[in-house]
Design a protein that fits this description.
single chain, 2,3-Dihydroxybiphenyl 1,2-Dioxygenase, domain 1, eight-stranded mixed β-sheet
């Protein structure tokens, strides 16, 4: 069976720069910039990202699960009753897809570049 780990939380943002500045100013957290629309926030005890790309973000905060086998993860999600809401696509760092679990929450699963 593929390995699955809850890896980070992703927050939608209208402006990634403003979000980065807020978390730095308010809490002293640092960030890794992955381009103008995405940043990884560090220092919170849990990694999380802010995503300002309207075409590539969910409408609400989203838990992101890391796997070493993206194809197996898609099959497992569907077999367990989940619905794929965005097919797998490349993003900085790997490939991912979005899905909705039967209770209605949207999540993502990704495989890092070395696993994708």
């Amino acid at each position: 069976m593929a390995d699955f780990t809850l890896d980070y939380l992703e927050l939608p943002s209208a402006d990634a720069g403003k979000s980065r500045a807020f978390f730095s100013d308010a809490f002293g957290w640092t960030h890794v910039d992955y381009g103008g629309s995405y940043a990884e926030i560090r220092g919170a005890g849990l990694l999380f990202g802010v995503n300002a790309d309207a075409a590539d973000r969910s409408a609400a905060p989203m838990a992101v699960i890391r796997t070493d086998d993206l194809a197996a993860a898609e099959k497992a999600v569907v077999a367990a009753g989940g619905t794929i809401t965005r097919e797998a696509y490349d993003f900085p760092g790997g490939r991912r897809f979005f899905f909705r679990e039967p209770g209605g929450a949207e999540l993502a699963v990704y495989a890092a570049s070395e696993d994708a």
